[in-house]
Write a structure and sequence with these properties.
This protein is an alpha/beta fold and 266 residues long. It contains 8 helices and 10 strands. Helix 7 runs parallel beside helix 8. The protein binds phosphoenolpyruvate (PEP) and manganese (II) ion (MN).
């Protein structure tokens, strides 16, 4: 059986758009924002900062799949309303994570729906998202092989939604010094296997704010079609993932460094 992914051979120029942002293997877009939407002031402040630095899209989790049930679970529906407020007030397209099929209608104003690492093989969710018209950012499962990752993308494509972005966000290995191990080789490998754009999330891949800049640079040179970076104006006060958040000033520097490297990209 021929899969939708094998379509690569005659679709090297596959692209789609979210607002003014064009996604494709030969494009490069930066998504930035907090791990979680915490308040109106927080999301609007960060949205303005990252947009000014050159971010193409604003991220912010409203439904947070946390390891502990006692950790901040996100502002849920209210969070999505605040994200949409930031979108209209600041003028930047948005992305947020879905965790449950029945929530799809809550994401009407969100430009890209994110499927997180924990749901990469939630096949019923993938099938429903395949029926939707929204672009989907599919994050690699924490212990998913490249084949499993691609088959999850295939679930979405097979239902008729061609607009999928793959996200390498690190995999679990024996190494505990970093939150996960960033599988940089997956970027050029996936480029050779599929027509879909592949971005890097250095934040969840490393869990350490001082590693975000070098891994963003490495991802760009390895041939990624974008980055997703967690940014917070006050990382020590963030309600989730503060250890891996970079400040708006660091983000500003990162955007310049990465853009300078793009001509060297694989
Ligand atoms: C996130 O991007 O907010 C997130 C929870 O990431 P992951 O699913 O990769 O852990
Ligand atoms: Mn996070």
């Amino acid at each position: 059986m021929t899969t939708y992914l094998e379509y690569k051979n005659n679709s090297n120029n596959f692209t789609f758009q979210t607002g003014d942002t064009v996604w494709g293997q030969n494009y490069f877009n930066i998504i930035a924002g907090p791990c979680a939407i915490e308040s109106e002031e927080q999301i609007i402040h960060i949205a303005k900062k990252v947009k000014k630095s050159g971010a193409d899209m604003l991220r912010g989790g409203a439904f947070k799949p946390r390891t502990s049930p006692y950790s901040f679970q996100g502002l849920r529906e209210e969070g999505l309303k605040l994200l949409n407020l930031a979108k209209t007030e600041v003028g930047i397209p948005t992305i947020s994570e879905i965790v449950e099929v029945s929530h799809i209608n809550l994401f009407e104003d969100v430009d890209i729906i994110q499927v997180g690492t924990r749901n990469m093989q939630n096949f019923e969710l993938l099938k429903e998202l395949g029926k939707s018209k929204k672009p989907i950012l599919l994050k690699r499962g924490v212990s998913a092989t490249i084949h499993e990752f691609l088959m999850s993308a295939e679930y979405i494509l097979a239902e008729g939604n061609p607009n999928v972005i793959l996200c390498e966000r690190g995999i679990r290995t024996f190494e505990t010094s970093t939150r996960n191990t960033l599988d940089l080789a997956s970027i050029p490998l996936l480029r050779s296997m599929t027509h879909l754009p592949i971005i890097v999330d250095p934040s969840h891949a490393t869990g350490k704010s001082n590693l975000i800049l070098p891994m963003s640079m490495a991802g760009a040179v390895a041939g990624a079609s974008g980055l997703m970076v967690e940014v917070h104006h006050s990382p020590e006060q963030a309600l989730s993932d503060g250890e891996q958040a970079i400040t708006p000033d660091t983000f500003d520097f990162l955007v310049q460094k990465v853009k300078d490297l793009l001509p060297l990209s694989y």
